[in-house]
Amino acid sequence: xxxxxxxxxxxxxxxxxxxxxxxxxxxxxxxxxxxxxxxxxxxxxxxxxxxxxxxxxxxxxxxxxxxxxxxxxxxxxxxxxxxxxxxxxxxxxxxxxxxxxxxxxxxxxxxxxxxxxxxxxxxxxxxxxxxxxxxxxxxxxxxxxxxxxxxxxxxxxxxxxxxxxxxxxxxxxxxxxxxxxxxxxxxxxxxxxxxxxxxxxxxxxxxxxxxxxxxxxxxxxxxxxxxxxxxxxxxxxxxxxxxxxxxxxxxxxxxxxxxxxxxxxxxxxxxxxxxxxxxxxxxxxxxxxxxxxxxxxxxxxxxxxxxxxxxxxxxxxxxxxxxxxxxxxxxxxxxxxxxxxxxxxxxxxxxxxxxxxxxxxxxxxxxxxxxxxxxxxxxxxxxxxxxxxxxxxxxxxxxxxxxxxxxxxxxxxxxxxxxxxxxxxxxxxxxxxxxxxxxxxxxxxxxxxxxxxxxxxxxxxxxxxxxxxxxxxxxxxxxxxxxxxxxxxxxxxxxxxxxxxxxxxxxxxxxxxxxxxxxxxxxxxxxxxxxxxxxxxxxxxxxxxxxxxxxxxxxxxxxxxxxxxxxxxxxxxxxxxxxxxxxxxxxxxxxxxxxxxxxxxxxxxxxxxxxxxxxxxxxxxxxxxxxxxxxxxxxxxxxxxx
Length: 642
Description:
By secondary structure, the chain is an alpha/beta fold. 36% of the residues lie in helices and 20% in strands. The strands form four sheets. Strands 12, 13, 14, 15, 16, 17, 18, 21, 22 and 23 form a ten-stranded mixed β-sheet that branches. Strands 1, 2, 3, 4, 5, 6, 7, 8 and 9 form a nine-stranded mixed β-sheet that branches. It is globular and about 90 Å long. The protein starts with a helix and ends in a 23-residue tail after the last helix. Mean pLDDT is 87; it is low at 64-94.
């Protein structure tokens, strides 16, 4: 006992010494800052001006960095019972396989049903909807156990038998009905999965519906978590999911971004678990039998046309069983899923009056959105800040002039007092509009000056170390920039070795923001299509960025307090705050000799300014980069186990 007390006293003494050292450091920094402040006051009374200066912000930031104790790495969000991890499904139920006997299945379901006979006051809040056709009894039993074990008591389950010939699973239906939470209906003739799901939705009484395929399983907290999210005002909520193999091991977790309509057009990413307000589901006509096989994807496209109140839970709450034992779910549609996917997206684009074609992507399950030719071409202004560096400027101008297929564009060169005669000759020979920017270079001020001098309805901000690869790059970027709710559009930028330099910006990396998927192969699909399909991102680099003049001016242009860095992130966040979407497209490609003009200088004042203006937004995590990924790695690798 005495040893324990002595150990505790020693630990307390060490803690007090550490705190005293921190206090002394804090006092030292404060004394230094105070002496600087007094000297400034005595020198000229310009305190307010200097306190607002970049130097002062940097000093304060450095002081806070040395004094503030380091924060431990954040643990995964969410309650432990629904945290996403690998391994077996988090449940006490035993694994049911095709070899499980009907008697085993019935006994397990009967026991679970007996424990589930809890009263439900009023109508259910959420109806689980299932279409069954020739379903193995073990598949329905596995799903049943996951439903019966839900932590929420506000559910019902609507099961429609789609005219099955193999009917062993029907032995479970009376057991399930005994809970007074399960409704069943048997169709005399098979209607297909869409017809059966529509029948189940008509049977449902819940305010919301969610969809469960026989054999698949829900996490115990799945319905409770989804209801909580729906109560925040969403009409649709989806979750992350994974796959359970025949041995019951979880793998292939799909960690999804928050709602990303552009990404959905290229990738069937929503999947399961999908919960929808029943009124919304019925108002769009339910499922369309023409798209059986991808019925949930086509249904989601039409849902997104009705509402944008779509929420996402970054937690694996649904486990898909593979190989799928349910014939209805595993049946390949006539013509294949890829053809149906293209048809569904094309119909979606037509309803939205978007001038594009849905074409097969480079890989199965991917759709390429190809812009249609424009009836009339708006003027596009390409703004290139530059100072001397004739090799870089020449390569940039030559590639733009030689490769660009778009007819109406102008080049505005913002010249920071070039003296090299070769650079001056290039600007003259390529007939660029030269705008003189005098004094020390400031990226924001230079580009704002160029924008005022430009004549175009659409603006492209381009570094002089950029070289075009794609001939139709303006058409590809303009397709998005012309959409009224789109702000900045960024391109796929490559290093000379054909690896990725820029494919969108993720908030939070290095405490601020950085490019995602650096050094990935240019021909890679990325993480579930992140490098092969256009998608929403929080920000894009202004090394090659297009946006409408209207959006640029509405956002106030580039904030001119920045000198060399983060002004593009700031502009994109300002656009996002005003309701615009920022888009990355991999179909406009360029080489980027990153920052060869200004070198590797890193401006701490710019960093501090970004955090002053957008610190809360950055700390809230990037909605398009799932919280289960390591934001410091910024390459879609999972966080280390805590």
